[in-house]
What we know:
The complex is a heterodimer of chains A (about 250) and B (about 260). By secondary structure, chain A is mainly α. Chain A has one domain. Helix content of chain A is about 75%, strand content about 0%. Chain A is built from 12 helices and no strands. Chain A has helices spanning about 1-15, 20-40, 40-45, 50-75, 75-80, 85-90, 95-125, 135-155, 165-180, 190-195, 200-215, 220-245. In chain A, α2 packs antiparallel against α4 (about 50-75), α7 crosses α12 and α11 (about 200-215) runs antiparallel to α12. The longest helix of chain A has 30 residues, at about 95-125. Chain B has about 260 residues and is of the alpha/beta class. Chain B has one domain: 3-Layer(aba) Sandwich (Rossmann fold), CATH 3.40.50.300. In chain B, about 40% of the residues lie in helices and about 20% in strands. Chain B is built from 10 helices and 9 strands. In chain B, the strands form 2 sheets. In chain B, strands 5-6-7-3-8-9 form a 6-stranded mixed beta sheet, sandwiched between helices. In chain B, strands 2-1-4 form a 3-stranded antiparallel beta sheet, covered by helices on one side. In chain B, α3 (about 90-100) crosses α4 (about 105-120). At the A-B interface, α1 and α6 of A face α2, α3 and α10 of B.
Amino acid sequence: xxxxxxxxxxxxxxxxxxxxxxxxxxxxxxxxxxxxxxxxxxxxxxxxxxxxxxxxxxxxxxxxxxxxxxxxxxxxxxxxxxxxxxxxxxxxxxxxxxxxxxxxxxxxxxxxxxxxxxxxxxxxxxxxxxxxxxxxxxxxxxxxxxxxxxxxxxxxxxxxxxxxxxxxxxxxxxxxxxxxxxxxxxxxxxxxxxxxxxxxxxxxxxxxxxxxxxxxxxxxxxxxxxxxxxxxxxxxxxxxxxxxxxxx
Amino acid sequence: xxxxxxxxxxxxxxxxxxxxxxxxxxxxxxxxxxxxxxxxxxxxxxxxxxxxxxxxxxxxxxxxxxxxxxxxxxxxxxxxxxxxxxxxxxxxxxxxxxxxxxxxxxxxxxxxxxxxxxxxxxxxxxxxxxxxxxxxxxxxxxxxxxxxxxxxxxxxxxxxxxxxxxxxxxxxxxxxxxxxxxxxxxxxxxxxxxxxxxxxxxxxxxxxxxxxxxxxxxxxxxxxxxxxxxxxxxxxxxxxxxxxxxxxxxxxxxxxxxxxx
Lengths: 248, 261
């Protein structure tokens, strides 16, 4: 328990001391929010789909969460590179606890980023439909953050150096993001692609978030919630297993 | 305290450690010497649960690290060949992290951290971020950190690499006094032969993955009819320069500068 806590607090400290990282990781979601919101908004509305910023808001929050979460998870590679990973690996701590601690740390950072982007979206004109549902929205932010930090950590535990980072971003994160319903509805996609999207965990994060913030979800908030919990558990277990296999 | 029997590690076709056996007694200061690429670090990694041996048996403080990892991990402290501190944390935070990870109770932990940081003369700098430290200060902090949980054994993989003679001297003074005061078993590697000659009660020399000689410095000198350990070492391992293959970790370290802001 203490080990989980100290791993968690370590990541928060590192985050709070790196202002550059805090700001730079907000730049991308903000850019998407402004470019898409104001660029595509009018077209979306002309097509009779309603307010685009209301549609886009939850998607961009989810985007901020998944990018930060994957990146936080991939910090394992930095720790490997700077030698600190060895310090954790020789410690008498179960690999599951290391996985949980790291995931909680990264997920907390990603959740904070998600909330900041939510506030930015509000400034740009996004309005949640019900203040009472904000707590539920926050829960989905946390769950999405946990799922993708665990995924990032699990992937990174197998990686030797930072060179692979752009590959992960381009071949895993971007497709997951574009096929998540974050920036356009999945309903108009070909049936095959829609089916494939069902295996994308981010779909349920975005759907749950949209359910809580806008009051419209495809799968139902409860289903999203259960699916995300299950995926988080599976990724965490896989990560712990991969951690126990790390040899340096 | 440490018992190694027929230990072997293969990486594909390459035999990094080839059927070695040795024993280290409690309270002993044991030097493990060898040219680059001889298998020193690979052996330490196997002893400290970071690598699984291909075959052979290990006992650390009568514990088998292959079957009882957690208990074995509590029994030793380690200072790695290359840095293993978190640069973004303060010196004290690095110590605290270690103490909590090893389950040292709070009161004892705080006392021990203060005591050790005073011994290595870093107590005044406890609030400084580690990235502001010099190489010698980082080394001292790492050695102190490895001792927080009162290990029975400390592994020091080239603890004085790249340090000036003053710092080297200091570091050995700390190690020696801890060895005497707490009867910690010390297992170390170095390329500075005078250090091994002065500090180690027993020495093993490894080359091409095999132990080529074991004994006190005098015994090794007698065996090779030389007058100091450096000559004995060269007589046993030859004078050719070793080419060490660049590992993945080394490549990353080269990239490190590019990735840092």
